[in-house]
Design a protein that fits this description.
The protein has a five-stranded mixed sheet with strand order 1-3-8-9-10, with no helix packed on it. Strands 2-5-4-6-7 form a five-stranded mixed sheet, covered by helices on one side. It has a single domain, classed as 60s Ribosomal Protein L30, Chain: A (2-Layer Sandwich), CATH 3.30.1330. It is an alpha+beta fold. It contains two helices and ten strands; from the N terminus they run E-E-E-E-E-H-E-H-E-E-E-E. The chain starts with a strand and ends with a strand.
């Protein structure tokens, strides 16, 4: 019997097939999945903000794109994933509220997606697929057995990337 491992907001976790891993309610937050297809091991981090260096209270590494991905890699390596085989899929980063001005600070979803992609590229981790942006929330479930990321959104068909 397989289990679905839950990842909370500003949290991370890892799993091995046949288990799956999920996070709920990604609005402007981004769910980042790192996956070692040979070992059938995956990890997920639910990041809330792009950059830990811009915030005073930044002890929680999983809260930020720049530190959360590093912490996730470390957790995956502890359970036997190979750093050199990791690939990524991401979802979330929506603009949940309409603002009349184009204040960059309010574009948290876009900034989270951009920061995540920059960090992955810097680490040499290939981004295989994404479902990001727009104006609706997402719940995601990743299955290490198949490498599929299932994206559920209210009023939308199931999307698999």
């Amino acid at each position: 019997m397989s289990e679905v491992i839950k990842v909370g907001m500003a949290d991370l976790n890892v799993c091995t097939a046949p288990d799956a891993i999920t996070t709920l309610g990604l609005g402007s937050c981004v769910g980042i999945v790192l996956y070692d297809s040979s070992a059938k091991k995956a990890g997920m981090v639910h990041i809330m903000l792009p950059d830990s260096t811009k915030i005073r209270n930044n002890e929680n590494a999983a809260k930020f794109a720049d530190t959360g991905i590093d912490a996730l890699i470390e957790s995956l390596q502890k359970v036997g994933a190979n750093r050199n085989r990791l690939t990524a899929k991401i979802a979330g980063g929506a603009q949940m509220f309409a603002f009349s001005n184009n204040n960059d600070m309010l574009r948290i979803g876009d900034r989270n997606v951009e920061a995540s992609k920059i960090k992955l590229e810097k680490l040499g981790i290939r981004l295989l697929a994404e479902d990001t942006g727009l104006n609706y929330g997402r719940t995601i479930v990743f299955y290490p057995e198949t490498g599929e990321l299932h994206i559920k959104s209210v009023g939308k068909p199931l999307k698999i990337i």
